[in-house]
């Protein structure tokens, strides 16, 4: 079991969380949408696996580099 930490690539606000713990994801699936400067920025899975933890909720502020999702490969 290896855990992969998915991080935000921008500073902004969580617009939409598209996954929940237990969800199966493929590499490049969109997990979260971040609103930044009036644009929606997708945060995507870096690997295939199972979502173990979602560390943000809709409306949360996020910083560049902040952990947002943990995926088990």
Automatic annotation (TrEMBL):
Keyword Metal-binding found: no
Domain named Lipoyl-binding: residues: 1-72
PROSITE patterns to which the protein is assigned, alphabetical: BIOTINYL_LIPOYL (PS50968)
Entry keyword set: Biotin
UniProt-listed InterPro entries: Biotin_Carboxyl_Carrier/Decarb, Biotin_lipoyl, Single_hybrid_motif
Protein name: Biotin/lipoyl-binding carrier protein
Organism the protein comes from: Rubrivivax albus
């Amino acid at each position: 079991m290896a855990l992969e930490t998915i991080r935000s690539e921008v500073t902004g606000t969580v617009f939409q969380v598209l996954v929940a713990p237990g969800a199966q994801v493929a590499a490049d699936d969109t997990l979260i949408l971040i609103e930044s400067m009036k644009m929606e920025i997708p945060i995507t899975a870096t690997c295939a696996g199972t979502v173990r933890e979602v560390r943000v909720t809709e409306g949360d502020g996020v910083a560049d580099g902040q952990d947002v999702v943990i995926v088990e490969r």
